[in-house]
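A note from the maintainers: we've had questions about how concatenated examples are separated. There is no special marker in the raw files; a new sequence line simply starts the next protein. For clarity in this README we add a label.
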Amino acid sequence: MTAAPEPAVRPEPAVRPGAPAAAIEAVALRKDFGPIHAVDGIDMCLPPGRIYGLLGPNGSGKTTLIRLLTGLASATSGTARVLGVAMPSRANLARIGYMTQSDGIYPELSVWENLSFFAALYGQTDRAQLVAALEFVELETRAGTPAQDLSGGMRRRLSMACALAHHPSVIFLDEPTVGVDPALRVQFWDHFHRLAADGATLLVSSHVMDEADRCDELLFIRDGHVLAQGTPAELRTRAGTDNLETAFLTFAAMTAATPPADPAGPPGPAASDGPPGPVGTGAADPAGSAGAAAADPAGSAGAATSAVDPTAESGSEEIAR
């Protein structure tokens, strides 16, 4: 009888010298919009050099959580830290890459002009590195094309290049593969794993469960709460199913009656959360583009306030994405 092959083991990531014990931290982090608890007391401690998937339906609070972690929104209460620095921190933004859910690149500028502008804000002026970023997203032949003439998928790819061109230590990717063709999506994830192996930390939000297995660790989020946290295999085991979507629904059903005290462990008894609030339908993400969110002091279309002052917020921010 032939023995089953051993499962592939991903090598331990190379943590960058001087890296803190946690790349991303949240302590009792909360963000309210009137009666809506978009982020409701989240605690997390994510070591560096791994890919973390933030999985949940639309309106679960994923985007609001990322904006709190990047310092582009101020918390109602609690603390957010990135690389050991309390956010918001203007100085720390140079070490962060952020690809927003909605594209905020300048439509009148060409692909190359957008990329070189945002990269320069981070201090990245090496032409070879910029060319490599365009080649990664397969836009090198469209360098002179105005962004407004690109397809939706191409604009997503340009946003990706802007977020990664300066080689950030912590990368926040909000729905990065929406509108990207399947072949390029595979290339994106291969590149994400290479970045993690080199010591970078990635937090990737999605509501697409078939991408969950590409992450080292998952955080299931709903109604502003982390329902469960663990590797895909651990979450399947705890939920008693081989299907991650079923696992999510299992944890959601368990938490509806007994919210977990510790998202890394099994749900414990507590008071009911009550019904979820309505989801806002505000303007497009005021954080701007990938580059603007982290370093552009001028912001991009509709983003000036958030970029100039990380503690400022737009009154029309979409409240519970």
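[label: protein 2]
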Amino acid sequence: MPSFPSVYAMPANVINFPSISTASASSLLAIPEELDYVVKSAPADFEPIKGAGHVRGMGFCNFRTDTEAPLGMVKERYQIVQNADLFESLAHALEDAAPARALDGARIKPSVSYGGAQAFADIAFPSLTEDLIQARGNATALTFRLLLWNSFDGSSPVRLAAGAIDGFCTNGMIFGSYDLFGKRHTKGFSQADLENFVGNSFVLFQEKITELRRETFKPIELTQAEDFLKKNFSERRSAQLLERFTVEAVERGATVWALRSALTFYASHNSSQFSVRNTGQDSAAAVLYGRENEIASLFSSRDWRDLMAA
């Protein structure tokens, strides 16, 4: 395992966010305790031959200051983006760009994977909820959500996604996303760009609701659903998803919306049908949000558009 000096002695290679003067904004979106940890970086060294002494040359090791647990190896140019700074910037963006009372009752679901190497905040806005009447005549409610995804292991960009949560089954879906920083965390941050994305997200939510209302009454044959799934998934996974589609169709009708619900169920739940492999590294959150990104691209694909046009 890489070793590094005391966390209290090492400077951090941290991105400095621009200062924002409005003191009240952070109170609108307080960071959950689970995500309120600090990460620093130290040169990594190793001992090629026991007793011969340590040498450097493995890059830098990012680690949590509260546990001193290593989070990942990165190169020198990689810059750390602290969770608290992201929350502060997002709070100000919401204050400037969100509709009136949008933050009333906002709920944050925090989660981490790999000991904090990846951090997630799933933020639901109950005051922004739209009803959706389904083909069977029953209704569900879609609630606007923002998903903030940070990482400290060099594996992914810092990303903010906008979407919705289906109140009937807590399935999550992503409509669009914005990378605040690239995978290497070297891209410059723009508060103005973040505010533009947040503001546009509320408009996008209304547009997507209109699309989803069309899906709820767009019939689909079992063979059409099967063909779509076989084109986009392995044989085993497509069979699982087709089985899930038949379950969703009982409540929602045999529609494109039911197929969407089967896919979002797969992406949102660590269930017996779509279980996340237990690696002993608390990977469930990362795997599930990775699935959400996977299926988000399907919903904008030509294959999906063909289902609606058939």
